[in-house]
Design brief:
The chain has 468 residues and is α/β, with parallel strands linked by helices. The protein has helices at residues 20-39, 103-117, 149-174, 253-265, 289-308, 334-340, 346-360, 393-401, 423-428, 431-439, 450-464, and strands at 42-50, 71-72, 77-85, 90-96, 124-128, 178-188, 192-199, 202-208, 216-223, 229-236, 249-250, 270-275, 281-283, 312-314, 318-328, 367-377, 381-386, 389-390, 407-410, 419-420. Helix 2 links the parallel strand 4 and strand 5.
Length: 468
């Protein structure tokens, strides 16, 4: 008698009783075969290297500091997560416990990765945690410092060594590739507050409980074929400014503490942190190392909740895209900086001298090269990496424009050369769009088109990775 598929039904075989122990053995054998197949969707490698500076060493992020750090509260780390799929697609994410990598460092590391390992520029992303208790990275924020020749040489040498160590951690992760399974989830914690406080004198850094925030904690889990945790990549949108300018110890702030707590709870696993679009977000309240431990604990707890909950399996392929956008600065003149060079403010004078040097060379600074990157794993997880200190508006808009993507939007990627502000923040004025440009050695605020210029780059890389 034909079946519904049109095939002849075979004669019914005699029923044979299989011993229970034999069935268990077959089942166990099936698991041994099937689990590695599922896990081998990806090859994953992990690397780490200590990047704590030699002491004493100048810390960065606060212009008010008057002397270098003389002790270490917590070690600083660079960590790398290398991903590869069966068709040869690759992505490598490097996280660092520093204020921000300038393009001089990131591009040197990326070029070495290209020549040594064949990585395309789109396949390597370098992220900074933005700790304000980390070392000066030359020439990032150099307007803050007036080093003598010996101290400047020491900072430059540390930056050179950092470049070498980042190159080494890339190689270590690629040499460590082994079968793994990826899954993603989201959690939350709420110690971040919008810091742009409106006052009668304009917006100042403070607390704005009504301002936009992003309390999500995205988590990417990496497990071995036996199910044990190998690595976890997580993020949060908040400045690592829990301690203030009066803190003179090397430390990773709340992000460093969270990574350490997760690794202590999961021996043999590596925790990697990425700061998201937290340029206008601060921990609240803040000011002591007890706050660092508290917020690091809250963030680690959020990650643990995600790991213990329902996760979404992440599948290949790996796709990546990279673009350098040009963001326009508002018009400026040589005369304006000649006047600023006479200011009583030493930081304004230093910025003015940099701008006048550019005018003298016939290359006044009119635009900022802004890196935009996307890494997409199947249709399950997408990372947008934006250069600079990016305000939270960009994350909210990107999530609205790509509602079907499991999207993570990170700032502080590849080149931290200025604040990147939305049209709203630019219109409100204040530290992020205006005053911060002095310390970054930039000519001034962007044009009102800056948000659209950034999103033009986002749209392009997202199309290239096949995002919906």
């Amino acid at each position: 008698m034909p079946t519904r598929a049109g095939h002849c039904r075979p004669s019914r075989p005699a029923i044979k009783h299989v011993p229970i122990q034999s069935m268990k053995a077959v089942y166990a054998l099936c698991l041994l075969v099937i689990v590695p197949v599922l896990a081998s969707d990806f090859q994953v490698g992990v690397g780490r290297v200590c990047i704590t500076p030699p002491l004493p060493f100048w810390l960065t992020g606060y212009a008010a500091r008057t002397n270098p750090a003389a002790s270490v509260r917590s070690e600083l780390w660079a960590k790398a997560l290398a991903l590869q799929d069966a068709s040869g697609g690759r992505a490598l994410i490097v996280t660092t416990d520093v204020i921000g990598l300038p393009h001089e460092v990131s591009e040197a590391v990326a070029e070495r990765a290209r020549t040594q390992h064949g990585l395309k520029r789109s396949e390597i992303l370098l992220s900074s945690s933005h700790t304000h208790a980390g070392p000066v990275i030359w020439p990032n924020l150099r307007v803050m410092f007036d080093f003598d020749a010996a101290e400047e040489a020491r900072v430059i040498e540390y930056t050179r060594q950092l470049t070498d160590r980042l190159t080494a951690v890339v190689s270590a992760a690629l040499a460590d590739l082994a079968p793994a399974q990826l899954a993603c989830a989201r959690s939350s914690t709420d110690f971040a507050i919008n810091r742009r406080q409106p006052t009668t004198q304009g917006v100042r850094i403070g607390q704005n409980g009504a301002g936009p925030v992003d309390h999500e904690v995205p988590v990417l889990r990496v497990t071995r074929p036996d199910g044990s945790l190998r690595a976890v990549l997580f993020g949060y949108a908040c400045h690592n400014t829990t301690t203030g300018a009066n803190f003179y110890q090397v430390a990773g702030d709340y992000a460093g503490h969270a990574q350490g707590q997760i690794e202590k709870a999961h021996p043999g696993a590596t925790a990697l942190f990425m700061i998201l679009c937290g340029a206008d977000q601060n921990p609240n309240p803040r000011g002591t190392y007890e706050h660092v431990e508290r917020y690091g604990g809250l963030l680690a707890d959020a990650v643990e909740r995600a790991l213990a909950g329902e996760l979404r399996l992440v599948r290949p392929p790996i796709r990546s895209a990279w673009r350098l956008n040009q963001l326009d600065f508002a018009p400026h003149s040589r005369e304006a900086f000649e006047q600023e060079a006479q200011s009583n403010d030493k930081f304004r004078r230093r910025r003015a001298h940099l701008m006048l040097e550019a005018y003298d060379l016939g290359r006044p600074v009119r635009q900022l090269a802004h890196p935009t990157q996307a890494i997409r794993l199947g249709s399950d997880w997408t990372l947008i990496g934006l250069g600079g200190e990016v305000v939270v508006d960009f994350a909210h808009r990107a999530k609205c424009e790509y509602p079907d993507e499991h999207l993570v939007v990170a700032g502080y990627c590849n080149d931290v050369s200025s604040y990147i502000v939305s049209r709203r923040v630019l219109g409100e004025g204040g530290y992020e769009p205006v005053d911060s440009m002095i310390y970054y050695g930039q000519p001034g605020p962007f044009t009102p088109d800056v948000e659209e210029q950034v999103f033009a780059g986002i749209h392009r890389v997202m199309r290239q990775v096949g995002a919906r």
